[in-house]
Write a structure and sequence with these properties.
single chain, 168 residues, alpha/beta, Maf protein, 5-stranded mixed beta sheet
């Protein structure tokens, strides 16, 4: 997997006048750090939130309690709700959400994670999922998995944007 190109993301986001916010669980701030490492990221990056447990996901991101509790907060739906919730909370055009298991534990055979990217339609809360994925982490240790998922999500965002907008 190619490493994330923050300058390319900044160029597209600025050219299109788009803003971004991030809701992280499994990635524990890695996405925010990768964006923040890009000089001038404040032109498009509204900020982020690390919500590590169900209480914070429900309170700050409007994640559905019943569904999240049933799946220990690890599902594609939770990632989508996190992305939509952070986009709404920060008033940004695009939201990214990540959730998953960074390592094996009781009941979790292998690390895996979900990410989702939500894009608002104009100034409304309506929008759509523009990218999502399940990341298999069986070959990664905990910290490697967190970084890997962050890169996967950011590269999926970049791929989506490059497919939608003329890049020059």
């Amino acid at each position: 997997m190619a490493s994330f190109n923050g300058e390319a993301l900044k160029m597209i986001m600025d050219k299109q006048g788009l803003t971004l916010s991030v809701a992280e669980s499994l990635t524990t701030g890695n996405i925010q750090a990768m964006i923040g490492a890009t000089s001038g990221a404040s032109t498009f990056f509204g900020g982020g939130l690390t919500a590590y447990n169900i209480y914070e996901k429900v309170k700050h991101l409007n994640v559905d309690w019943a569904h999240a509790a049933k799946f220990n907060c690890v599902s594609q739906r939770v990632a989508i709700e996190m992305a939509k919730g952070v986009s709404s909370s920060f008033g940004c055009d695009i939201g990214i959400g990540t959730t998953g298991y960074a390592e094996s534990s009781s009941g979790v055979l292998a690390p895996h994670a979900y990410f989702a990217i939500w894009k608002r339609n104009g100034e409304t809360s309506d929008g759509e999922v523009v990218a999502k994925g399940l990341v298999d982490g069986k070959d990664h240790k905990r910290v490697e998995m967190q970084r890997h998922v962050a890169e996967m999500a950011l590269n999926a965002l970049l791929e989506y944007l490059e497919g939608c907008y003329e890049v020059r």
